[in-house]
Amino acid sequence: MYSFSLAMVTARMRRPRLGVGVGLVGALVGLEADAVAAGPITKGPWVQRVTSSSAVVRVEVDPPAAAAVEIGLGPTEGDSGQRVFTSDAPRALHTIVLDGLQPGTRYPYSVRVGATSKYAAFVTAPPDEGDAPFRFLVYGDNRTDDAAHAAVVRAMVPAATDFLVHTGDFVADGGSAAEWQTFFDIEAPLLGARCLFSCVGNHELTDGSGIAYARFFGPTDLPAVVDAGRAPTGRAPAALRPEHLNGTYRWGNTRFFFINGLVSYRGTVDRTWLETALTEADAEASLKWRVVVVHHGPWSSGPHGKNARLHDAGIIPLLKEHKVDLILSGHDHIYERGFADGLAYVVSGGGGAPVYPIKAPLPEARKLESVRHFVDVSVSGAAMQFVATRADGSTIERCALSKALGGWDCDGTGAVAPSPPPAPTSRCACDVVGATPWVGAAPLGGVALGAVVLAFVRRRRRTTP
C-alpha cells in the first residue's frame, strides 16, 4: 500500500510540502524500488520505548520468520556507524532492542525479513541535561471512520516532529485483528518516521484483556507465551500487571506518565505504580516539565465529562503535589484546552472517530471545538507552544503554556505572547547517523533525508546477493 517506485519518490522530493524529513520518510516506508513487494511484513516496522541511547523496533510478519534490523547509512560497507540487530527465532511479532545509540540522533534503518526489506527512521531523545528543544504531535480516537483517520494522518505527516503521543482508542474493537491491521496500514507514514508513545483507551480493552494493545504498544514486553497468542490453558492472558498498561518515559527536560485511566486508583496496584513513578521523578536532575497522558481525563466538556475515578481517588491533588504541568487526554472526540485546579489540560480526541458535540462547557475551558484535529507541541525550557490544527490544515488556535506564568499565556491573563511554531524545516538539534548534516540548514530536511535513504537503498542493492 505504501510501496513507491524510485521515480515516484524522486517526484515527491521536488514537492515543497515534503521538504520535511519525516514527511519524506513516510513516503519511503517500504521502498526498495524493484525488490520490495508486499512480502512477509504485515505490520510496521514501528518504534517504541525510545531513550537517549536505545530503542525498540517492532515488526509483524506472516508466516513467522526471523528478522534483522540494520542501522547506519554510511556510503560503504564496514562504516563504524553500521550495526545489525537480529531476532533469529521464527516468530510472528518481533521486538528487537537497539542499544548503544547516540542521543539526539536521527537513525534511518532497514528491517529485513528473508528477501524483503522495509525502510524507516526515528530520532533518539536528547540528553537529559540542558533544554534541547523538541516537538511532538498529540492525537487520539482514530477508530470507526477509516477515511477520516487517513485524512488526519495526511495532515500530520509533513510536521517535522520527533515523536507521537497517542491519547488512546486506536481501534473500535481491541480484539479485532482486522481493525488493528487497518490501523497499521493507515498509520504507516507516521509510524515509519518516528516513535509513538501512548496510553490505553477503553476500546483497546473491549476484549476484556487489552492483550493486543499491550503486544503492539505496551510499555513493556509480555511473557513469551503471550507472543504466541495463548496461555497454557488455551486462553489469551489479560494484561493485568500495572506495567503492562502504564508507562513513563523521559524526553530531554520532560517526563511523560502514560496511565490507564479506566481502573480504580483507590489503594490499587495502579495507584502504587503511579505514586512510585511520580516520586522517582521528583528526584530527577534537570527535569523541567511533567506531563500526564490518560485516555479519559479529569476534565472534558464533551458527553463523557469528567473522569470520576481520578477525582474520587484524589489523583488530582496527587498530581499537583508532584508538580505535574499538563494533562493530555482523549475519549471525548473534541478539542478542548483549559485550566482547572492548578493544572493545564488539553483534550485531543479528534483523530478520526465521529466527532462529539460540546455537551456541557466547563467554566475551566478556555477553547472548545468539535472537530477532527491534532496538536503540534514545541517544548523548550521556558514554554510549551501548542498549535491545534484541523484535518483540513487550518488552525484552531495557537497558545503556549508558560513556565514563568504557571499557566496559559494566550487567554488575556498573562504578559507573554505566544510565539509562532518553528518553521517546518527547523528540526530538533539532532545528528544523522552515517551522514553529515547540511551546514546552515536543519539537520535532516526532506531532500537531505531522501538522499541518505536512497543512498542506503542503492548500497543494499549493490551488496545484497
CATH class assignment of the largest domain: Alpha Beta
Residue-averaged pLDDT: 81
Percent of residues in helical segments? 10-25%
Largest sheet: 7 strands, mixed
Beta-strand content: 25-35%
Q: How is the largest sheet built, in terms of strand order?
A: 8-7-6-16-17-18-19
Radius of gyration over all CA atoms, rounded = 21 Å
Strand element count: 20
Count of separate DSSP helical elements? 11
Please state the structural category: alpha/beta
Weakly predicted, low-confidence segments? 1-38, 75-79, 225-234, 413-465
Report on the architecture of this protein:
- There is one protein chain.
- The chain is an alpha/beta fold and 465 residues long.
- The chain contains eleven helices and 20 strands.
- It has helices at residues 6-13, 21-28, 146-156, 177-191, 211-217, 224-227, 242-245, 269-282, 308-312, 315-321, 446-463; strands spanning 41-48, 55-71, 83-98, 105-113, 116-123, 134-139, 163-166, 195-198, 247-251, 254-259, 289-294, 326-329, 335-340, 343-348, 365-369, 373-379, 383-390, 395-402, 407-408, 431-432.
- A seven-stranded mixed beta sheet has the order 8-7-6-16-17-18-19, with helices on one face.
- The radius of gyration is 21 Å and the shape is globular.
Show the helix and strand layout:
Elements: H1 6-13, H2 21-28, E1 41-48, E2 55-71, E3 83-98, E4 105-113, E5 116-123, E6 134-139, H3 146-156, E7 163-166, H4 177-191, E8 195-198, H5 211-217, H6 224-227, H7 242-245, E9 247-251, E10 254-259, H8 269-282, E11 289-294, H9 308-312, H10 315-321, E12 326-329, E13 335-340, E14 343-348, E15 365-369, E16 373-379, E17 383-390, E18 395-402, E19 407-408, E20 431-432, H11 446-463
Parallel strand pairs: 4-20, 6-7, 7-8, 10-11, 11-12, 12-14
Antiparallel strand pairs: 1-2, 2-3, 2-4, 4-5, 6-16, 9-10, 13-14, 13-15, 16-17, 17-18, 18-19
